[in-house]
Amino acid sequence: MNPDARETWQQAFAPPTTTPVPARVRDLAEGAALEPVWENEIGGLTFRARGVEGVRYIKYGPLNAETSMAVEAERMGWASAYTPVPRVLAVGADDEHEWLVTSGLPGLSAVDPRWTAEPATAVRAIGRGLRALHEALPVDECPFDWTVPARVANAAGRGIVLPPALREPPPIERLVVCHGDACAPNTLVGDDGAWSGHVDLGALGVADRWADIAVAAMSTEWNYGPGWQDALVEAYGISPDRERLAYYQALWNAT
Q1: CATH of span 3-103
Q2: Where in this chain does the record put each Aminoglycoside phosphotransferase domain (predicted)?
């Protein structure tokens, strides 16, 4: 995400309550009350479904290889054995659209107004939650790759030619299973101010932990204003590494 697009992102986060509900979403909701909670840049929608069986989330959007819901479902299914992530209830597609239904988790997004009003608490939860994710997911058992060569190849497949400087990353400091999109919205925060889970795991894979840390730190600027990057890194439990932060933030913006 372009860091200059904060206003656009905020608009995408909260679609109008009058947003039309696709017929497929109504079928998947099985009579539950629906509330639109997210619209992304390619027209994908996420609805909260409240019914007698609790809260579910229904993602629905155009087929798109870069944001495949089937890919996300596979990664969430793997990660759910080790850390709090949504449970996959259904996934499917037709000729034009795809959908994913997941269980709800306790807590609110770290960019809910409840937490944007308390940025110190939110940033601390994001940093600690990211460290917990990295410690919980076993690198040796992870079948998914998010290393720089994999990302460079993925970008090339989408017609993006990266400058030579971005094709030569700093030496790996520590391999972990990265979230892959560790932006602030994807950490959930409980009533106690502690992280309670992670969502949107479509790019999860093995990489240097700074690939996640850099993006999480950068996203604090978009969501809480300047001055929070170092606080996030410190909440993670390490000191800022300027070279790796700069590299992985530039890679994120370029891809």
Answers
A1: 3.30.200.20
A2: 66-147, 169-247
